[in-house]
Amino acid sequence: MLLEVAAILYTSAPVTVAEAIGVHKTSVIVVASGPLTSDLERGEASGTGGVVGSYVPSAQSVQPPLIASDVSPSGIPNRFLSAAATTRVPLDTLPTLSKGSLLRQLGLLPEQTLTAYLAAHPSTVTDLLAAPPAARDVTTWWSGLSDSARDTVNTAAPQLIGNLDGIPASIRNDANQVWLEQSITALKTTVESSPGRAVAAESTRQIHMLDEVNSALGTNDSVPQRSLLSLDVEGQGRAAVVLGDLATADYVTYLIPGMFFTVEGQINDWTDDAARIYDEQVSWLNLIGDNDPAEAGKTVAVVSWMGYETPNLTNIGSLELAKVGRDAIADVVRGLLSERAENEPHITIIAHSYGSTATMMALSEYSFEIDALAVIGSPGSAAQSVDDLNVRNGNVWVGEAAWDPVPNSAFFGSDPGSPEFGAHHLGVEGGVDLITNEMLSASVGHNGYFGAGSESVRNLALIGIGQSQLVTDGTPKDTSKTLALLN
Amino acid sequence: MTSRVYLLLALAGSLAVVTPALSGCTAGNSGGESAESARDRLYGLLDETQVVLGGTWENQDDPTSRGCVIPLFTEGEMYPALRVGTPPARVAAAVASVTTLWRTRGYTVDEAAIDTVREVQAEGVNGEIAILRVSAEAMTLHGESECRPLG
Q: Residue A232 belongs to what H/E stretch?
């Protein structure tokens, strides 16, 4: 048995892993102008699966006449706190507001007042980000702000703007770049001034983690340009690096990682894998673009997404982190859907290992839809079939590499690779050379799915650009996907 | 031993192989060559290939290096390349000429076809990869240079 495990350990390349408030109060004389908008608050997904409905209207969505439930805990009628509200409420009532109302009020404060308020209430931003308003409400809020108000919030709270799903990616990148630099500066100050070695050591580790994020962002010369979609500097950290332009890309692919992934240890490698998918997609879009006018000129964006804390050996058997990942995945996709409501892109998720569990939970417990899902090295989820997943046209693919012990385990529920599940098989074995009949480069082991030139990367890329008909599965059907070109 | 215990042990093993291993990238050793020198060698091969194929090419080479691992346990870096070209006069002739060129240069060459696209893949002895894809409508060249130790 141990020999078997040892063999598995070395089926992939071994690598060392470490891995003032002197703020004046404002009178409450508020008149809502225009129609009231709904104030939807973030809904909670069922932790047990099967319950769809991510948005739960709060009492604030109730329209006049004014009733008890239409009043916020501060006693202020919630309709006065709608997106159309233009006047501030007393600062000391802000902590009592719902997240959506709080966000709107922050957008009304002058820069000096906002900066002072956030300094006096440092948990405001982190609390908002821990349970943010629905992405579409964020989009509505942001689009309703004046340029000066946007500048004010951006300057006073880059961490908030950089990490709120529903705000345009380019704005978030600018804010996150500022937040990144501010964080590094603050941590260096801590290292230099801290009397305790433990604090200094932790700050040094965080600096290293943020340096890795900086490295993953490439340079101004990187092709394509990279941007920072999200950044959390606490704990293991969270970050998402975008290759391409999320605002305009026709095809958007998210790469969701699994166990043992930390920002400090793997953000660069995960972004490298995203870059390989990007290159493959650009290659294929050019090759088929002239053949298919509908595809000509289309563009891609790939997101190296490390937006949840992945498990390690101490908690790999639990679904707790998968639930956090589930919610974060739902947030980021709904954020894109909200930003691109008028020009919705083709959205694909490629999820590896434990990340596939979190992803399938999101796709079965939330109501948003994506266009394609590819899971590789998956330990399963509670979803019993592709019909349980909100993926259009059942466009679900499963890849299982040789010597990967995780697929077929159904550790967290069903096995997505089983025939009953109904997913398509994604070839990762390498295929066969047309002339020599030799096997092409195959993916081997739990971490071997992203090798350059592999059948796995090619197939994953094709799924991401809506070319599923070209995906090979290692069966005789593949021959029908090839032409007699050896003429 | 239960399947769950087996799985946990196997997952534990993955702790030792996560990260650059995701790419499946390992490489051998070709003396004291730097990653930049290996990159220039790949660029040179692709430049030569473009000349053989003719047509007009757009260079989208990303100057950002990628991580990799050199046995044993040595962190390294490599560089990617991506070029997009106008369609060839004849697909089969393009494939044949590049196959010959790459074999002449000492690469192991494999060939595949996916729908209307012909794919030729070359691998150097130390893991350098170059891929030509040709259809009647376009050509692309991309790849990754040999993995070399971090400078």
A: strand A226-232
Q: Report the alpha-carbon distance of residue A51 to residue A361 in Å, rounded.
A: 10
Give the A:B interface size as CB pairs under 8 Å: 241
Q: What is the DSSP string of B19-67?
A: SGGGGT-B----TT--HHHHHHHHHHHHHHHHHHH-S-EEE------EE
CB nearest to B133's CB, from A5, A268, A287: A287
Q: Distance, in angstroms, between B11 CA and closest chain A CA?
A: 8
- pLDDT tens by residue, A360-378: 999 999 999 999 999 998 9
Our count of domains for chain B comes to 1
Widest distance between CA atoms in chain A: 82
Q: Is A450's Cβ below 8 Å from some Cβ in B?
A: yes
pLDDT in tens, A281-302: 999 999 987 667 777 789 999 9
Domains present along chain A, CATH in parentheses: 32-156 (no CATH), 160-487 (3.40.50.1820)
In terms of phi and psi (left: phi > 0; alpha: psi -120 to 50; beta: otherwise), the region of B57 is beta
Distance from CA of A464 to the nearest CA of B (A): 16
Question: Which residues, 6+ apart, have CB-to-CB distance to A141 below 8 Å?
Answer: A83, A100, A103, A104, A107, A133, A166
> B99: domain range?
3-149
Most confident of A98-102, A183-187, A466-470, B15-19: A183-187
Element (H, E) at A376: strand A372-376
A window 390-409, beta carbon within 8 A of B: 405-406, 409
Can you name the residues that pair with A252 across neighbouring β-strands? A301, A347
Closest Cα of chain B to A242: distance in Å? 14
Quick check: B17 and A453 CB within 8 A? no
| CATH number for the domain that contains residue B67 | 3.30.2030.30
8 A C-beta contact, residue B8 and residue A259: no
Residue A247 Cα to chain centre, angstroms: 15
Count CB-CB contacts under 10 A for residue A52: 14
